[in-house]
Amino acid sequence: KACNVSISTVSLVLSQDSRIPLKTKQRVLAAVKSFGYRPNLLARNLSRQSSMTMACVVPYETFLDSPGFYNDLLCSVYEAVSLGGYRMIFEMMTPQFLRRRFYLRLFRERSIDGMIILYPRKSDLYLRELEPFRNSVVVLGSTFDSNPLYSITPNHKVMGKLACEHLVALGHKKIAFFAFDQDLACIEQRRAGYAEALNNAGLETQGAMLLSAKNVFDLVSPDTIKSLRLQGVTGMVVSTDSLVPMLLRAVFEAGLKVPEDLSIVSADDQLFARSFSPPLSTVSNSCAKMATQAMKRLTVLQDQPDSLSFIFRDQVAGGEGKVEFVESELVLRASARPI
What we know:
alpha/beta; six-stranded mixed β-sheet; 12 strands; 43% helix
């Protein structure tokens, strides 16, 4: 009454709905402050039949092989979930979790209001089973043809292309690509971007320069590094920052230096990338942006499920989920130099 607006408008303002005009928002927030109003979370949860809990899910084997690959994104998701006023539970898609279909039980028992899945694999069949809950599920970091769910992801092909283009601009002619061989679409897409950058520059990818480890424990050897140098390789695109420590070790054991003998550009800009010696040039995966956008999508649907859910249903066509890309950027440090 004090603001001369409806109850639903006040609710939308408190839910940070972007459709509310700025002047109306300011007027409502001023009244909220003057009256000392605080939402009754228990009443709100009961009326919504809400648990105020989000589940964050990661693939089991991939997480065990490369926890650093997920660390920064997990932290970003936790921060975004907390800022949204929700609790977060962490689940891994273990064989038991999949076999007993706990991912469905979480929704059916109303233990969670939404689910954020980090970098699922192309072979993850459970994604199809979550399609009935697609308005409450967001996939972060991956997009591929068989995924029916809404995805928020960097453009991994662009990430691989940016990394390789930087080395090409520095004058490198022979550039290798190093990845761990996981069933992750993002790795395949980053490799495609690397290949496109070389092709655009009139350079060729050679089989010997596409290094692939079965997992992160299959260390690239000093002999491999020496072999690449004999082939004239002076630059390397690494599929993710998590692989760089083993690569630096192999370079050191081969009696070589970065960037003097081998320039490296990686991807993801994980927190430890700036702590390497030398600090790592890499392409940001925009994990904070992904997490923020995921919570924005999920909380909008929680606040206005009936009026807004049709918007997202219309965005799903042909059984495939809509993809929202976040922008990546090249972060220049000291691991690559001109030749």
